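Hi there,

I know you've been waiting on this one. I reran it after we fixed the sequence typo, so this is the corrected version. Both the input and the resulting structure follow.
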Amino acid sequence: MKIPLEDLFEDIVGKAQRGLQVSDQELCQRARLALEEFRLLKKGSGTPASVPGIAEALGLGPNALTASYAKSWYPTDVPEIDGTKQFNSPLIDMTVNAYLVWDPENKEAAVFDTGADATELLAFIDFTRLSVKFLFLTHTHQDHVADLGAIAKKTQAEIFSPELERLPETKVVCQGDHIQLGKLGIEARLTNGHSPGGTSYVVQGLQNTVAVVGDSLFAGSMGGAPNDYQKALRNNLEKLLSLPGDTLICPGHGPLTTVANEWEHNPFFAH
């Protein structure tokens, strides 16, 4: 079953408005659009020809935003990489992701975030006989640490939380830190904006580069950053979208994607 995209047209536009502090009225003035037409667009019953004007007014990619409005895009050409697995668990009215990454040769593994319920993840660890050495947190919002206790108890893994969002009794991970996992190298990159210490983890040594990005970046969108919008955009551009096009992007919500997909289809970056 396909994991749905985290954000729809109205979510993307709302995040850009909040980040730029642009009201509905101001946006409509910039886009030369009637307020009622904008309200219809947010309900999915407006005129698609109005979307490029909104994109231009908010600095978004018009083609990508139009595709979002039409619900015509979903990530394609996403590689299946041996040594990675996504776990998607429901939480109230949404779902949240956790990830396992491991060295296929020696079975040493790392968990990234916990999801809402780690039952499936822990069962997979048992079934595949992985040896979990580390648990890395991208940030400490509740949906990403909800089952921390269960994973910690079961695996006895060393837990790392971001320097700017440190949890008690965890080790700190900082921008530029490198951790070795078997033959894999894991680099921490500070990609904050959505949260004060938001950190992404770039894994080298598998068939493709892998980036576990938390809520910094989603397939076709990004995490909301009303107070640090420009910082969030800049971090995504400089620290994530600068990776090779075939890099596997593992977001905190929604489906897997790639750097190439996001350059072409993410309204925040596809210009």
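Quick highlight: The radius of gyration is 19 Å.

Best,
R. S.
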